[in-house]
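User: structure tokens for this one?
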Amino acid sequence: MPQGTRPEPDAHAKAVADIIRAEMGDEMTIADVSRTTGIPRPTLSHILNHRRQPYLSQLRAMAAAVGIPLPQLLDKAEKMQPGA
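Assistant:
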């Protein structure tokens, strides 16, 4: 993999993005979460639209922004995996 490129999101990262989206509901926009987390809006959009694998620090920030503890977020994502 060339330097500076990131892997495609795996099924777990996609599940996390879907949970974050659901927790955002109609009350929060990507711009709101971006302001709260400090994650640039384009980056956040790529993560939430399954085009970019998030860093752990980004997961922590997104979970906090939507009010879900990170362990709970990861547990929910794990349970969404096939065979879980």
